[in-house]
Amino acid sequence: MEELILFIQSIIDLDSEETYSIQKLFKPKSLKKGDFFLAEGQVSKHIGFLVKGVMRYYINHDGEDKTYEFAQENEFIGNYESFLPKAPSVKNIQALEDSEIFQISYEDLQLFYRSVRQGERFGRIVIEAVFIKTLKGLSSLYTGTPELRYEEFIKKHPDLQQRISQYHIASYVGVKPQSLSRIRKRIFNQK
Amino acid sequence: MEELILFIQSIIDLDSEETYSIQKLFKPKSLKKGDFFLAEGQVSKHIGFLVKGVMRYYINHDGEDKTYEFAQENEFIGNYESFLPKAPSVKNIQALEDSEIFQISYEDLQLFYRSVRQGERFGRIVIEAVFIKTLKGLSSLYTGTPELRYEEFIKKHPDLQQRISQYHIASYVGVKPQSLSRIRKRIFNQK
């Protein structure tokens, strides 16, 4: 839980009482590789802080997976579009490795906002960052070329190339796995 | 300015000192029909509260306007993707009528967060609502059929049909203006 407290303290001040209450509001959760933190059709009940592991976010479009985001250690994960209005999710969040998460429920998050002095500030700043990341991810998904998306992937997640499968990288880039090496070659030849 | 104060008070409590300071932080701004609140390439410097008028949000895709959202009275307008990281906007926000706005700068918004007791809470709740609205608008833009988008438009903005041009409705629905009546007929025949 130390990582989560340090992360929160990098944004707001916490006294020891607040630290203690945060440790009770967030509950540990383990996911096996392939498990879902949130699956299409479910109502999202938690926001998670990823301590260990990798998640991919994807949408199912006519039977085809479109991966639009990855998350890794020390990031918040969740789908506010489902979590806030308590609506069924159209998005999937899946563990690509065995993962460790601390998660908070909707009700406990309201308690966090009320009981931590700068809790609202923390919530505002986190949601701003998630908003920007999500919008960038989605607009790149719909308008970016495969070459651009491959370059973005390398830049944003330099270590993930070794951790996740070619299949999932290709799903993010928007091509078949067998086309990835062609794209790598094209980018390499331009440099 | 009364509308803005009432809107804020519908979400948080304000005392008279806070009300007074908010009246100084937000500045009036008028736009003529066709003017831009934010144009592609500009860095967004303000978030606005629309008191009178209609805005459309659009992206220019290879020379074609794609309208993905409208805003009308008593809504906040702006592009957080440009405003927060101080990055050039890829989106346009244009007045479709002569409009009256109260706008706040980035620096004054930080002052608002610090000086209004529940300012952070207000900011968190507004950005949550904008986040959800933007995501819904964009995902419908990229995946919704014209029929679905026309129905959404009618539902979300029942009064805008009379206020804005067929051209802008068609741009939102994603068809040429001359195809709108065909879509209306198809929806009508299904009912």
Q: Provide mean pLDDT of chain A, rounded.
A: 93
Fraction in beta strands of chain A: 15-25%
Biggest β-sheet description of chain A: 4 strands, antiparallel
Major beta sheet, strand line-up of chain A: 1-8-3-6
**Biggest chain pair contact, residues each?**
A-B, 24 and 24 residues
Q: So how many helices of chain A?
A: 9
Q: Could you estimate the helical fraction of the residues of chain A in percent? A: 40-55%
Distance N terminus to C terminus of chain A?
A: 43 Å
Shape of chain A: elongated
The SSE order of chain A reads HHEEEEEEHEEHHHHHH
Oligomer: homodimer
Which stretches of chain A are poorly predicted, pLDDT < 50 over at least 5 residues? none
Provide the structure class of chain A: alpha+beta
- Cα Rg of chain A: 18 Å
Total strands of chain A: the figure is 8
